[in-house]
Amino acid sequence: MFAQLVSTYHLHPIVDHFTIALLAFGIAAEILAAAAILFSRDRADFASVMGQKLRATSLTLMIGGAGASVLSYFTGDAEADRLWDTMSPAAQQILSSSTGARDYLSHAVLGQYLMYAFLVLAAWRVMLELSRRFERTRIAFLVLAVVAAGALLYQGKTGGELVYEHGAGVSSAKVSSLATEAR
């Protein structure tokens, strides 16, 4: 039933775009908040107030993005199962490589790692909000969040390669018409 919904409504790319946007803007809001608070002169100036508002925005976006990452993983898993036999060997290598270090950077494996990473980062972000003791870990949180965002953008690139270079999930009629147009 779930796989049918994913296939019929093309849920994987829809959910993925929300995931990327929510997490990227959540991390950007957190970085801007840190900069605003760092440069504020006192607790009541404009920069400090904006920093606090950006932190609240970041919290909401990170929680929503972490939830969306779970949906991205499961919709991607359903799509991979559906499309595997129709994919070229080169596309299969991008999706799920089994050659050493590339295995960790394959689209599917990286998706699973990123889901867990963003769930942990969202929980960490909640703890930053709730506990003063966690405040001293904010810099580590920001560094890891930026690294995770970079990995998320790389995964988006590999997803784009699967679709735009290898035609994964594109019907054969569309692929042949695109090939004809390219001539």
What descriptors fit this protein?
183 residues, mainly alpha, 81% helix
What do you see in this structure?
By secondary structure, the chain is mainly α. Helix content is 81%, strand content 0%. The model has no long low-confidence stretch (mean pLDDT 90).
Helix count equals: 8
- Structural class assignment: mainly alpha
Main sheet overview? none
Helix content: over 70%
Stretches where pLDDT is under 50 for at least 5 consecutive residues are none
* pLDDT averaged residue by residue: 90
In N-to-C order, the SSE pattern is HHHHHHHH
Query: What is the strand tally?
Result: 0
Shape: elongated
End-to-end separation: 40 Å
Cα-based radius of gyration, to the nearest Å: 20 Å
Write a brief caption for the model:
The chain is 81% helix and 0% strand. It is mainly alpha-helical and 183 residues long.
Set out the fold topology:
Layout: H1 2-9, H2 11-39, H3 46-83, H4 89-95, H5 102-105, H6 107-130, H7 138-165, H8 172-182
